[in-house]
């Protein structure tokens, strides 16, 4: 069935033939019979860029792979289908007192998508990204058939698949390691008047989760002012709030179950395989003046609170991006783009440069989020195309402007920012990207050649592809379908 699919930010759309394989045999048959435009695998359609788009080709949905097994309390693991969302998983694990060690800002990401992006959360220095918590995964690839991969037994293909953007094959199942939870966190918001103070405060947190919202419109001495939110798990059999921990976990389970419900359908029905409706001509609701007022109010509220800690049910701290379903529509009919960068320690100046450059270009970010990233755990690798590196990551959401001088200024500003990030030894997140220049790819991702070698062994004909793959030449010159 030919439909128009969009990315999550509503900034890109691509016509594709959508299929929904139901089991190993159907997935194998699909890869064997793929035409010249190849196959793109797509979960919930939550990618901010073009990683799950395949213009004029086939897009295979993983929705039939949504089962979640019971928690194995002895090993602390759960076996799940790649089409299950993180909220699906938590709906099973949390009532039993277990949680996923790594959670991004939304529960609507599928497990397969989380693996392909090697997602990280607000606790990366303590828990790394999701790849560090995968015991095994089942992959079907064009050349290798169906294989079970483990980080110890098959490290090459395993780490090429984790963070590999769905280009090594199709993840069918994943066995995830869990950790105990009492269902509560101790959370605090602290207002900091400058970017340096925000960075300093984030650097103090190693045990729990920490994230900073930055006021992307404040400049001068207040450039990068923001609110640092920290959360440390509490509760459980011997911890604080133990009397209510079990009830809290059940409440989280109910909240996660509610998050499993599909979001209101976007104009191009991402991830559903249903034909798109005409995109509504919605106005830009996140105007610069509205964002400035909201930013000032948020900063003032946090400053008035004084950083006092509070005990919060875990369910209330989960998935802030799901609190307002369909929120990308607030950016208007052209949608928005997110520029997410990472730079190593000592290169914090690039963070200030990014904020200042967008302001000078007339496109201050409507949302700016800063987190600290850590190193992989001892004895673990990172995916060869994984985004996180030790240091800092800054995500900047900018409304897509109409064609004209403003759009040209924004494009040039982001190109210059990419150059500065690469020169600082940093990188741009590929799963969030929709505009990076290919010549910077190798500088940003030094593991690119190792990834290409593994991808070529698993998929020598380049059956697995995407608009992202073709735009950046991820497989190298002349590789893959055209």
TrEMBL record:
Gene3D superfamilies (UniProt xref): 3.30.465.10
Low complexity: which segments have biased composition?
264-274
One short Pfam family name for this protein? FAD_binding_4
Query: GO terms for molecular function, please?
Result: FAD binding; oxidoreductase activity, acting on the CH-OH group of donors, oxygen as acceptor
Family annotation (InterPro entries): FAD-bd_PCMH, FAD-bd_PCMH-like_sf, FAD-bd_PCMH_sub2, FAD_lactone_oxidase-like, Oxid_FAD_bind_N
Which domain of life does the UniProt lineage start with? Bacteria
Region (Disordered) spans which residues? Answer: 255-282
Question: What positions does the domain FAD-binding PCMH-type occupy?
Answer: 11-181
Q: What is this protein called?
A: Decaprenylphospho-beta-D-ribofuranose 2-oxidase
Instruction: Please give the organism.
Output: Georgenia soli
């Amino acid at each position: 069935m030919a439909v128009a699919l969009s990315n999550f930010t509503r900034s890109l759309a691509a016509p594709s033939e959508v299929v929904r394989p139901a089991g190993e045999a159907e997935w194998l048959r699909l890869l064997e019979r793929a035409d010249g435009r190849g196959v793109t695998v797509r979960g919930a359609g939550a990618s901010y860029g073009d990683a799950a788009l395949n213009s004029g080709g086939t897009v295979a949905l993983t929705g039939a792979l949504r089962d979640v097994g019971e928690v194995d309390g002895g090993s602390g693991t759960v076996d799940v289908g790649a089409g299950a969302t993180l909220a699906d998983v938590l709906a099973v694990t949390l009532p039993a007192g277990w949680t996923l060690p790594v959670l991004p800002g939304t529960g609507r990401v599928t497990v397969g998508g989380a693996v392909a992006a090697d997602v990280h959360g607000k606790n990366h220095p303590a828990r790394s990204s999701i790849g560090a918590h995968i015991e095994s995964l089942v992959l079907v690839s064009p050349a290798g058939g169906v294989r079970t991969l483990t980080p110890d037994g098959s490290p090459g293909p395993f780490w090429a698949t984790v963070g590999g953007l769905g280009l090594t094959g199709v993840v069918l199942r994943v066995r995830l390691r869990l950790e105990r939870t009492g269902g509560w966190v101790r959370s605090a918001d602290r207002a900091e008047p400058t970017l340096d103070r925000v960075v300093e405060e984030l650097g103090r947190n190693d045990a729990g989760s920490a994230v900073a919202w930055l006021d992307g419109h404040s400049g001068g001495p207040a450039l990068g002012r923001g609110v640092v939110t920290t959360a440390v798990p509490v509760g459980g059999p011997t911890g604080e709030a133990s009397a209510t921990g079990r009830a809290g976990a059940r409440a989280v389970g109910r909240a996660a179950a509610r998050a499993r419900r599909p979001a209101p359908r976007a104009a191009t029905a991402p991830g559903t395989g249903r034909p798109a409706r005409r995109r509504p001509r919605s106005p830009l609701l996140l105007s610069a003046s509205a964002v400035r007022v909201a930013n000032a109010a948020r900063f003032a509220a946090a400053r008035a609170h004084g950083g006092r800690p509070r005990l919060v049910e875990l369910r209330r701290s989960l998935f802030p991006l799901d609190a307002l379903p369909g929120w990308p529509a607030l950016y208007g009919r052209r949608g928005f783009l997110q520029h997410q960068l990472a730079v190593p320690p000592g290169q914090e100046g690039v963070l200030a440069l990014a904020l200042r450059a967008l302001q000078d270009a007339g496109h201050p970010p409507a949302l700016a989020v800063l987190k600290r990233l850590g190193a992989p755990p001892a004895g673990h690798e990172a995916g060869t195309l994984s985004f996180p590196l030790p240091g800092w990551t800054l995500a900047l959401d900018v409304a897509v402007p109409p064609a004209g001088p403003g759009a040209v200024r924004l494009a040039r500003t982001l190109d210059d920012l990419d150059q500065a990030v690469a020169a600082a030894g940093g990188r741009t997140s590929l799963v969030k990207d929709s505009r990076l220049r290919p010549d910077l790819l190798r500088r940003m991702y030094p593991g690119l050649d190792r990834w290409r070698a593994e991808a070529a062994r698993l998929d020598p004909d380049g059956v697995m592809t995407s608009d992202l793959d073709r735009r950046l030449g991820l497989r190298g010159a002349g590789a893959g379908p055209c």
